[in-house]
Amino acid sequence: MGNVVMNASVSMDGFIAAENDDPGPLFEWLVSGDVPLDDSGVLKVSQTSYDHIRPYWDQIGVTIAGRHVFDLTDGWDGTPPSGVDHAVVVTHRPAPEGWDPEAPFHFVDSIEAALAKAQELAGDRVVEVAAGDVGGQVLAAGLVDEVRMDVAPVVFGSGKRYFGSVDAQHLLEDPDVVIQGSRVLHLRYRVRR
């Protein structure tokens, strides 16, 4: 089975969006470089960020996200983000009306069901869990292997927390990756077991 990785861009004070879900300048680093990150032509990063992010993206088999993120992104128009093969959506509601049943999205009602489905689909590839409420629940359940953060140079003051509503201490190892890109600091921590 592949690693379970919690990942997102985050403000210096630990938020993934403002209270109104606006990510503000958190993703500025994804469009401030000159190296295309994918085939869209929209995402362009520094060479340093490309060398760090692209190999990671190539390892991801499945992304797990909550229904709120799914709705905010309009279901990524039926195509999982970052070239990922499948997305698993944690929700207590059915797929949206008119949703293409052939789209590689799977709707489940718990983090346990999400992780089981994601690991089945991913095999030995990485299962990525979006930070926020769902990511925090997966971390609190002891199911996250590593935490990756793309720290943007902005302070929000308040908003949607990277670790969601986690209310207990969780220890991480020292960062084993610290990479300075343009408008971002890439960090990776293993979760202490």
TrEMBL record:
Write down the Gene3D superfamilies for this protein, in alphabetical order. Answer: Dihydrofolate Reductase, subunit A (3.40.430.10)
Residue span(s) of domain Bacterial bifunctional deaminase-reductase C-terminal: 88-171
User: Which SUPFAM superfamilies does this chain map to?
Assistant: Dihydrofolate reductase-like (SSF53597)
InterPro entries in UniProt: DHFR-like_dom_sf, RibDG_C
- Looking at the record's lineage, which domain of life comes first? Bacteria
Provide the protein name: Dihydrofolate reductase family protein
Q: Which organism is it from?
A: Nocardioides bizhenqiangii
